[in-house]
Amino acid sequence: GESVGLHLPTLSVQEGDNSIINCAYSNSASDYFIWYKQESGKGPQFIIDIRSNMDKRQGQRVTVLLNKTVKHLSLQIAATQPGDSAVYFCAEFLSGGYNKLIFGAGTRLAVHP
Amino acid sequence: DAGVTQSPTHLIKTRGQQVTLRCSPKSGHDTVSWYQQALGQGPQFIFQYYEEEERQRGNFPDRFSGHQFPNYSSELNVNALLLGDSALYLCASSLAGEGGRYEQYFGPGTRLTVT
User: Fold this and answer.
1) pLDDT for B92-105, tens place per residue?
2) B22 contacts B7 by C-beta, under 8 angstroms
3) B residues 3-32 near A, CB within 8 Å?
4) Which residue, A99, A94, A101, A73, is CA-closest to A29?
5) Nearest CA in chain A to B91
6) CB B43 to CB A98 under 8 A?
7) I want to staple B32 with a disulfide (CB 3.0 to 4.6 A). Which of A24, B2, B19, B74 is the partner?
8) What's phi and psi for A80, nearest 5 deg?
9) Please, are residues B109 and B3 in contact by the beta-carbon 8 Å criterion?
10) Is residue A7's pLDDT more than 80?
């Protein structure tokens, strides 16, 4: 399959370690923030979302943290597995007539055995 | 891939030509958004269709147009192709309603190469 992110920043981790992927967003008025995973040759896959009035949300092996003061979003993946290797994008959603996702630049996660 | 299908998978066109890409949304979804993803970048919003009308548009020229059919499927048309139009074109479907539109499910994309 083709590579999605040839020139993206890369985070390399050992299998079993925890991963933290960071993202800065631009619009203070965004209502939702979403993390997507994109594997080579595939479209982005929804991982987890967080509403703007929250600062933390947990899913299965994943946690998203939102810091509105500095417009920062992070995705924590516990016990990273080889299947987690992909490009991760954060996206912000602005409703109220805009209804569009604005994606960040992306980070490649490489998990080594 | 969450039920969203796109065709064709790959396409090669020459500069100046026109292209049509197709998308069928996830069952039960009524809103279709199109994104362009250049290599090494995040998807960029092109436009969104709901109730057979273009509701929102990103910063793309009029060469990019679309259509939504009564069965909610959608087409993206690009006229007068430029080399810079080479990209992965993604379709995402969602359900209108409070909060619904942000839960967008993506198809696998169509890889367009303009030579």
Assistant:
1) 998 876 555 678 89
2) yes
3) 4
4) A94
5) A43
6) no
7) B74
8) -55, 140
9) no
10) no
